[in-house]
Amino acid sequence: PSLLFYSSLCPLRPSTSSVLPAVAKLVLVHFHWQVSQILDRYKSNSSQLLSEAQVQPSSTCRSVPTPQSLQCGVCLQLVRRDALLALPCQHSFCKTCWEQHCTVLVKDGIGVGISCMAQDCSLQMPEDFVLPLLPGEELKDKYRRYLFRDYVESHFQLQLCPGADCPIVIQVQEPRARRVQCIRCNEVFCFKCRIMYHAPTDCPTIRRWLTKCADDSETANYISAHTKDCPKCNICIEKNGGCNHMQCSKCKHDFCWMCLGDWKTHGSEYYECSRYKENPDIVNQSQQAQAREALKKYLFYFERWENHNKSLQLEAQTYQRIQEKIQERVMNNLGTWIDWQYLQNAAKLLAKCRYTLQYTYPYAYYMESGPRKKLVRVLGIPLIFLKLLFRKIINYKGIQRKMRVNFFLVRSHVLRVTTQPQLCIPT
What we know:
Blueprint: E1 4-5, H1 21-30, H2 35-44, H3 46-52, E2 84-86, E3 92-94, H4 95-107, H5 127-130, H6 137-154, E4 158-160, E5 169-171, E6 179-181, E7 188-190, H7 203-213, H8 216-223, E8 227-229, E9 236-238, E10 245-247, E11 254-256, H9 287-331, H10 341-358, H11 360-365, H12 375-395, H13 400-418
Parallel strand pairs: 1-2
Antiparallel strand pairs: 2-3, 4-5, 6-7, 8-9, 10-11
Helix pairs in contact: 2-3, 8-9, 9-10, 10-12, 10-13, 12-13
């Protein structure tokens, strides 16, 4: 033949009901696997559907050079007739140029989305056209993995687990922002955006917040700053626990990690350190003053966000120490694993409460002033109570039964607060 076409003719012919599998996959990806809608549209106007999916050339596609032309459209070299390849758009190029084109794109991580090399032509290349052009089985395997990734990511009911090197695919009946956990690597994430689970903050807001936190102009010095000076003796102190109640190892001064105020003066209002106080006259001040106030507000919420993040890491170490203590007491016949189960439950609940509270700060940062902004303050109270009770559980012996009862009372209060409708991810 003078010109070698993909599948000899256009792979999708509207006059027939036959669609090649490789092309059908591209159609499904383009329309996010909405099979019923695709079938309805294919029956009513197949040409329009296939053109929209960029698997069939549109009527405005420019004509192809005559078969007598033996010049490659890319390298402009004269080649043998059997060395020219073309898609249904009939833009012909030599096999070497096709191979280089596909190889470069696959090495860049492209699966679905490799299109014709001709200018202003967006016709997609099916996998059975690309695979024979790729040199070596290793590159072909990469291309197949990229295709699988793109097939899954385009499906409205599927998501790849974001865990490191995890091949699990998560399927849900109703695609929305929801908490999912991988059965293989235990990764917990939001199904809609594949970011770590972030209720009560919605997906667009958490993306804005994480982008803002990644801006070195505002946060570089604060992300790395995990130490503060004692407000009494000025010795440098590194936080080694999850609680904000700090005691200087040198002068024994008790103070709040967040505001550096005397812990005794906090009284019953120690949760005020998690409540940002806005300047009511800021709108009447200069732009410089407004900029300083905006930065102050951001740093207020970021510092508390980062504080909870570090506390979660430290409390994970605390949980490991609890496991070791339980093992030691069980080995010394001081009860069974069941007897000490409430300690593990308390540590897990404390971590869950802190995790939820951490994600209220981006939510509060972007929230307009009003009654709903008191959410952070309301959530902080049961967490503090739970932390105080958890300390008693750890430090006192011989009152396990009493502490267990108190623990479940606080647990019910925490769950009642953290399951209010206001905490659900906005739909």
